[in-house]
Amino acid sequence: MTETRDVLLTRLKGEARQIRRNVWRALRGSGSGHAGGSCSAADLLAGLYFHRMQIRPKEPDWPERDRFVLSKGHANAALGAVLAQAGYIEDEVLDRFYGFESPFGMHPDIKVAGVEMCTGALGHGLAVGVGMALGARMQKLDFHTFVMLGDGELHEGSNWEAAMAGSHYKLSNLTAIVDRNHISQSGRVADIIDIEPLADKWRAFGWEVHEFDGHDMEQIVDIFDALPLHGERPTALIAQTVKGKGVSFAEDTYVWHSNNVNDDVYARALAELGEA
Amino acid sequence: MNTAATTTADWRTRSANQTRLAFGQALLELAVREPRTVVLSADTQDLLGIRPYIERHRDRFVEVGIAEQNAIGIAAGLATTGMRPYVCGYAPFITARSMEQVRNDVAYANQRVVIGAAASGITLGVAGGTHHAIEDLALMRSLPNMTVIVPADVDETYQATLATLEIDGPVYMRLGGRAEEPAVSDPGVPFRLGKAVQLRPGNDVAIIACGSLVEMAVRASDALQKEGIKARVINMHTIKPLDRDAILTAAAETRGIVTAEEHHLTGGLGGAVAELLSVEHPTRMRMVGMPDVFAMVGPTGQIRAKYGMSAEAIAEACRSLR
């Protein structure tokens, strides 16, 4: 039975809303964490895990699964939410997210089902993704590798080493997704070290580039369905997003890059996000 | 190009008594034994002698250019897909520059990545301090999950490289430079990970050495023999996991221990031995290696002698433990 486009979009929006609810839930359980960058990525993650990626949550080591590397590992609350909603991990894990002996810390750990690499130190994920894409080619597996990068993360020079290698090896099975929320820990990325012209940079490094609204589920579905955008180039998707999207007091401010979440904050956030 | 596996005579000849080249020769055999072998180069194709490998296995080779961080990250990604990556690099750069990638992507994620690190110690003496690797063992040894191997000659390098097939985790293999490294191991003795090899008996003192200092330790022991001092020589080719039994036995059976390595006295083999003995069997020790300075520029042999990495210095350290 084929899902109609309207049903698909409604379902994905529901998953994205649930991701945001779970992000705030996990952070309340932990007392603090990275709400801003988790919520800016929520719609993109919903489109990946609940539409685009070929995955088997009950068989997380399936060799032909699509790979996702959360290079901006501080958005781990969003990844945890997705993995719980997709059935990789138990839902109750979200309530003890950063607790003693929790499988999840503030950053992803490969020991958790569905997590493909330990990330969080920035500027690591794209090189790992290049390796995965090369590994697919060498073993004649047709999985696709997705790497989500923060825009502030692009200050790390190692990203550009990996970008050079990705185009050199014509890795059309590799997609970088830049969560372009314009804010890092200390303020606006443009004020700290400007990364524009960003699309031109990726093009200059030999990538096929597409910019879109990272909160518009129609655009997300359309671009994910169109991958790969070029038969001999990796794809860089620059998703324009809003840090802390979905909760007014957390939107577009560096204050909510990482902050404390108490019961009152949680209640106000959930009230804005609405029911699952 | 002959596509058959190399014969013993072939690889020995092509290794030219250099451990860095023996590593490259062993990769040819590995590629036959393990089809998932993949070799990465950071613009180091000749440094580790991998052109024969590349000619035969171009589809399992990745050149990343002068980008060590990228080499390690890509290797980790390859390993997650089931490939068995061997990264070829310069010891000073593939460790210090890419330390965070080695730590997080390889060691923390516990991926089967083998790092072949050539031009270690002060083998690039004339290149100056930027090109000396005298802290690499300290860096690599401090990482959980990491195996650290320092072969003493080409036979041990070849065997140890093949032995990495059985190691379920990351490996750091420390290799030499462009000078000949004298044969010191017995090719008939199989390499056993974490099991040191006794090269000379003796119960007066024990010299525990690795890499280039093993041959010097043997010469020191032979010289001391003439003075009536029986110095046991232990080739500690595996720095991690350390052969505790060999060290504790030597400490119990001799008057003292001399460690010898081409590395800072901080954090390398001497440090590892001292950490063990100070807790389990406090023992008089002397440590031969680089003092807490950056080495001067010069030919490797003269730099070694200047900072006390010589057979004479090892012998003198042994005498002081009478």
- Please count the beta strands of chain A (DSSP E, at least 2 residues each): 9
The biggest beta sheet of chain B reads: 7 strands, mixed
Question: Can you write the helix and strand succession of chain A as a string?
Answer: HEHHEHHEHEEEHHEHEEH
The count of strands of chain B amounts to 12
Return Rg of chain A in Å.
17 Å
Class by alpha and beta content of chain B? alpha/beta
Number of helices of chain A: 10
- Which stretches of chain B of 5+ consecutive residues score pLDDT under 50? none
Strand content of chain B: 15-25%
Approximately how much helix is present in the residues of chain B?
A: 25-40%
Sequence of secondary-structure elements of chain B:
HHEHEHEHHEHEHEEEHEEHEHEHH
Low-confidence stretches of chain A: none
Q: Considering DSSP H and I runs of 4 or more, what fraction of the residues of chain A is helical? A: 40-55%
Largest interface: A-B, 31 and 30 residues
Description:
- The complex is a heterodimer of chains A (276) and B (322).
- With 276 residues, chain A is an alpha/beta fold.
- Helix content of chain A is 40%, strand content 13%.
- Chain A is built from ten helices and nine strands.
- A five-stranded parallel β-sheet of chain A has the order 2-3-4-8-7, sandwiched between helices.
- In chain A, α5 runs parallel beside α6.
- Chain B is an alpha/beta fold and 322 residues long.
- In chain B, strands 2-1-3-4-6-5-10 form a seven-stranded mixed β-sheet, sandwiched between helices. Chain B has a five-stranded mixed β-sheet with strand order 7-9-8-11-12, sandwiched between helices.
- In chain B, β8, α9 and β9 form a beta-alpha-beta unit.
- The radius of gyration of chain B is 19 Å and the shape is globular.
- Chain B starts with 7 loop residues before the first helix and ends with a helix.
- The interface between A and B is medium-sized, with 31 and 30 residues.
Question: Would you spell out the secondary-structure blueprint of this structure?
Answer:
The complex is a heterodimer of chains A (276) and B (322).
Chain A: H1 5-30, E1 32-33, H2 35-40, H3 42-52, E2 67-70, H4 76-86, H5 125-138, E3 145-150, H6 158-168, E4 174-180, E5 183-184, E6 187-188, H7 189-192, H8 198-204, E7 208-213, H9 217-226, E8 235-240, E9 259-260, H10 263-273
Parallel strand pairs in A: 2-3, 3-4, 4-8, 7-8
Antiparallel strand pairs in A: 1-9, 5-6
Chain B: H1 8-15, H2 19-33, E1 37-41, H3 51-56, E2 61-63, H4 68-80, E3 84-90, H5 91-96, H6 99-108, E4 114-118, H7 136-141, E5 147-149, H8 154-163, E6 171-174, E7 197-200, E8 205-209, H9 212-226, E9 231-235, E10 238-240, H10 244-253, E11 257-264, H11 269-280, E12 285-290, H12 300-306, H13 311-319
Parallel strand pairs in B: 1-2, 1-3, 3-4, 4-6, 5-6, 8-9, 8-11, 11-12
Antiparallel strand pairs in B: 5-10, 7-9
Helix pairs in contact in B: 1-2, 2-8, 4-6, 9-13, 10-11
